[in-house]
Write a structure and sequence with these properties.
six-stranded mixed beta sheet, single chain, 2-enoyl-CoA Hydratase, Chain A, domain 1, binds nicotinamide-adenine-dinucleotide, alpha/beta, 21 strands, 12% strand, Rossmann fold, N-(1-d-carboxylethyl)-l-norvaline Dehydrogenase, domain 2, 3 domains, eight-stranded mixed beta sheet
Length: 735
């Protein structure tokens, strides 16, 4: 066998070690299914074997199903559907049901199995463990177990919805299935997901001990008189399902068919015997995988994101080691950049104007880790080791052996030019210099540099430790070495890089400002204020535009608009800005409503339990229309269309050159309705022709910014899609 090794000891305990060759993590693909099936049959037939330990030869247990296998399965289904729809449905169901049957065979067999979960076990791999009669988990803080399928538009299809709902209390079970959150060992044990927690090195020994202790080969639900924690016929059960449905609806606005199907699996599955329940789950799995949402999410949030994370856009130049990074400016962003860099194992020289400011930036790491220690997510040793990597100083001389220096000083061209010159003076010559500016074109900043070839933009989003996207900006003169090093750095800190060309606002901010501008227009038109954020969320955005605007700060919006006016002159600037918006934001700032940082913006930020409430005096600057006269669909469309159109313009202008980056960047950067797969996938999903027609329709009522760009008009005429015309294989061929 390629993927599994089996060894039976003197006590008749067979240890199966899963270790896929050439992969960093185990995943379930067809070869794994075939071999596992053969193994199960061998074990059943071998009388010497009394019990089984299932473990992994990697540092983790397993990552889940190979989603490319699911894509292939779906492609076969589509091909067969054209020939014989019934046969295609049967084939899809049989494929989905196969894993359930196989794992049930393990569970209902007459030999006890124990999963020795030596590291993280997710999705289908955790479902394999759940089908075992005993589960021993490593206590390592990095080890987690969970069912993240919901995050890529799917549902756990290897019995996860049924076994979790029968093991865990109803509320935690449904939350776990719907949020896809993974749990560390202590929590997993408390929830009843695992039986024993031991140091990583002891999982196999403990598993053997369970077997020798007489573990019965019987799942709780196969015992007579089993009572599940969720009895849907009880008053508690009914209440919990009603509340669960309401919460799911509030969180998803019914945009995610997989979430609805997860609830159906639990509700229907709990009413029937276990084998029937598994069949129900497989039916919903087969239904879910056919949804456009699943296809779009798998493509953008799994396949494409993984490709970008592996450096798909990296030019083919020799790799340089990244050992030491300089960070200039130890403020809000610089402190975060120093933290994530040290966390990834690199040395950091953190510079500010004076020692106090530099120390304060380093203290941010200390405070962050102290909080993590309190929550038992880190240890004092780890904190001290990370802090030892950050040297807070004012001495530019310390930068001489840095591979990369990132500046995050004030957003001021003069200050940045000054810093660039000081770094140049300390530089070895091969050092790459990156700016974290959010608004100043990189080409303009590069003018201060001795070596524009080595000058690049590395644009983080705040908060740096949480946001997974980093935009890398190429100025006209930026060279391949700088790009390769920037991509290597971003992947080393485990974030997703997208590479964009130099323009005002780059890609993400250019797209997201459209979102806020549309909200400002709605306010000015008199759309009732609560409807603005609520309908944006109904459209699929995780954060409403006014809430987002408060988080970013209104005075920053004001500053960016004023800067654009100053830089472009009124005539040019007013092509991308709206005078009414400038007046609106000026009025808000005059009222001191600058956003969350001041406790007041579009919302008043009251202490808990009251929380955020819309500013009641908004009515003094805004006349409200009758709420019943508002067309909800029109409001929702305006939000998604204005962003999608800006994404098309960025692509047409060559600011973004890869459709994968346009989609992944918008989802990770500001949460563009994830179920669509991103703005270009959204357009493909609607159909370019239908999208273009609707955009024209919106333009007739809401302004020129809805007019479809020439590229769209041409694609609509030719019946093309973005992923049909610009998919990266074709891009490669074209190149
Ligand atoms: P900040 O004011 O919190 O921090 C700036 C730091 O730079 C301060 O500690 C200041 O003392 C230091 N500094 C100023 N001049 C210096 C000099 N000559 N030498 C050394 N240190 C100097 O600002 P911030 O929010 O961290 O923003 C920094 C940069 O990051 C800006 O270019 C900003 O546009 C960009 N950015 C900010 C965000 C955000 O959300 N705040 C997001 C992306 C990018």
């Amino acid at each position: 066998m390629k993927n599994f090794a089996i060894e039976t000891d003197a006590d008749g305990i067979a240890t199966i070690t899963w270790d896929m060759p050439g992969k960093s993590m185990n995943v379930i693909d067809i070869t794994v299914m075939d071999e596992f099936e053969k193994l199960v049959a061998e074990i059943e037939a071998d009388e010497e074997i009394k019990g089984v330990v299932l473990t992994s030869g990697k540092s983790t247990f397993g990552a889940g199903a190979d989603l490319t296998m699911l894509q292939d399965m779906l492609a076969k289904f589509e091909a067969e559907k054209a020939r014989d729809a019934d046969a295609a449905m049967q084939m899809l169901f049989d494929n989905a049901y196969r894993l359930n049957l196989l794992l049930r065979r393990v569970e209902a067999g007459d030999k006890p199995w124990v999963a020795a979960i030596n590291g993280t076990a997710l999705g289908g791999c955790f479902e394999m463990a759940l089908a075992c009669h005993g589960r021993v988990m490593s206590e390592d803080e990095k080890a987690t177990v969970g069912l993240p399928e919901v995050k890529v538009g799917l549902l756990p299809g290897g019995g996860g919805t049924q076994r979790v709902a029968r093991l865990v209390n109803p509320q935690d079970a449904v939350t776990m299935l719907l949020q896809g959150k993974a749990h560390r060992a202590a929590k997993a044990k408390q929830l009843g997901l695992v039986h024993e927690v031991v140091p990583a090195g002891d999982v196999i020994a403990k598993a053997k001990e369970m077997l020798k202790g007489g573990l019965k080969p019987k799942a709780p639900w196969d015992e007579r008189g089993f009572r599940a924690p969720l009895n849907i016929w009880s008053p508690d059960g009914m209440q919990m399902l009603a509340a669960g449905n309401a919460i799911m609806r509030k969180e998803t606005y019914a945009n995610y068919p997989n979430a609805t199907n997860i609830m159906k699996c639990v509700y229907e599955g709990m009413q029937v015997p276990f084998d029937t329940a598994l069949k129900i789950e497989s039916r919903y799995f087969a239904n879910t995988i056919q949804s456009p949402e699943a296809a779009a999410m798998i493509r953008s949030l799994f396949i494409n994101m993984q490709e970008l994370n592996k450096g798909a856009r990296r030019p083919d130049v020799p790799k340089r080691e990244l050992n030491k990074i300089g960070v200039i400016g130890a403020g809000f962003m610089g402190a975060g950049i120093a933290y994530v860099t040290a966390k990834a194992g690199m040395e950091v020289v953190l510079i500010d104007r004076d020692q106090d400011a530099a120390d304060k930036g380093k203290d941010w790491s200390r405070e962050t880790l102290d909080k993590a220690i309190k929550r038992k997510h880190s240890t004092e040793e780890k904190r001290d080791a990370l802090l030892a990597k950050i040297e807070a100083t004012t001495d530019y001389g310390k930068l001489s052996d840095c591979d990369l220096v990132i500046e995050a000083v004030f957003e001021d061209k003069g200050v940045k030019a000054d810093v660039t010159k000081q770094v140049d003076a300390a530089s070895s010559g091969t050092m790459i210099f990156a700016s974290n500016t959010s608004t100043i074109p990189i080409g303009e900043l590069a003018e201060a540099s001795k070596n524009a070839d080595n000058f690049i933009g590395i644009h983080f989003f705040s908060p740096v430790d949480k946001m997974m996207l980093v935009e890398i900006i190429m100025a006209e003169k930026t060279g391949d070495d700088a790009l390769a090093l920037a991509i290597d750095y971003v992947t080393k800190i485990k974030k997703t890089p997208i590479v964009v060309n130099d323009t005002r606002g780059f890609y993400v901010n250019r797209a997201v400002i459209r979102y806020m501008q549309e909200a400002w227009s709605m306010l000015i038109e008199g759309v009732p204020v609560p409807m603005i954020d609520n309908l944006a969320r109904a459209a699929g955005m995780p954060v409403g535009p006014l809430t987002l605007n408060d988080a970013v700060a209104l005075d920053l919006s004001q500053k960016v608009m004023k800067q654009t006016l100053a830089d472009l002159g009124e005539e040019e600037a007013l092509k991308v800005l709206d005078k009414r918006h400038i007046d609106l934001i000026d009025t808000m700032v005059e009222h001191g409503r600058v956003g969350k940082k001041a406790g007041k913006g579009w919302y008043d930020y009251n202490p808990k339990p009251v929380g955020a409430k819309l500013w009641p005096d908004l009515k003094t600057i805004h006349t409200q229309q009758d709420a019943d006269a508002i067309d909800h669909q029109e409001i929702e469309d305006r939000f998604l269309y204005t962003i999608a159109l800006e994404a098309v313009r960025c692509f047409e202008e060559g600011v973004v050159t890869d459709i994968r980056e346009a989609d992944v960047g918008a989802i990770l950067g500001f949460g563009f309705a994830p179920f669509t797969g991103g703005p270009l996938s959204f357009i493909d999903g609607i159909g370019v022709e239908a999208f273009t027609a609707r955009a024209n329709d919106l333009a007739s009522r809401h302004g020129e910014h809805f007019s479809p760009p020439a590229l769209l008009v041409e694609m609509a005429k030719n019946g093309e899609t973005f992923y049909g015309r610009f998919s990266h294989e074709e891009q490669k061929q074209a190149a």
